[in-house]
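Notes from the 1:1 (GR / supervisor)

We went over the backlog. Supervisor wanted to see one worked example end to end before approving the batch request, so GR pasted a single chain during the call. The sequence is below; no edits were made to it. Supervisor asked that the structure be written out right there so they could see what the output format looks like.
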Amino acid sequence: MIEIKNLTKVFKLNKKQMKESKTKSNTKVAVDNLSLTANNGEIYGLLGPNGAGKTTTLRCIATIIRATKGEIYVAGHEVLREAEAVRNSIGFLTSDIKLDPQFSPDYMFDFFGRLHNVSKDVLKERKEELFTYFGIKDFAHKQIKELSTGMKQKAAIAVSLVHDPEIVIFDEPTNGLDIVTARSVTDYLKKLRDEGKLVIVSTHIMSEAEKLCDRIGVIIDGKKVAEGTLVDLLEETHTDDLEDAFFELYKRKKEEA
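Structure output shown during the call:
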């Protein structure tokens, strides 16, 4: 379970960033008083446009960056006081964190398995399961820099799941993937959900969120503007699909501004 209470994250901007953002303010509120709860046995989707605050939220959950205000609990552990326990409970994947290009998927899998104190026997079983499912065996000993985008993503997913975490946090897990690879990734996330794990993903792909997520939180300009099942969101916005629902929520938010 993940519980977020009034999360706010404010970044300081340098002069170059202020110029690029066309603002005179030296601060940017990336996440603004966000609260949500995601439960075991579900896929919870954070949906929003680029720059909405999705990645910042996930990084705060994963202990990579520190929240300015608010509290976050992951599997009962508070992220600031019990950061190591949080990291042991989660598998985190983001495109900004890449595997070392000089090493092979096989080496990186073993390396991170040792970091997570996975025993040799369990590590062997995990590798067999994940490398088989994602079709990694054929390129397991190639350098990562030699792999295609899809191969790199499959390897990164396998490595992030080496310790069989109870909570899986993926930031844009299918971004840049071909349709076959993307389907294998989303199918595996459903498998994890069906095993009782919590999967939380961020995406801006409406069709993916529509098919994949049990519940969805819509974030615009750092604020949560809606939350619920697909049916809930369609009823709230009087629309027929998630894309139309999103644009209705987006329109409402901009009218309030």
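Supervisor's comment: Residues 179-194 form the longest helix (16 residues).
Batch request approved.
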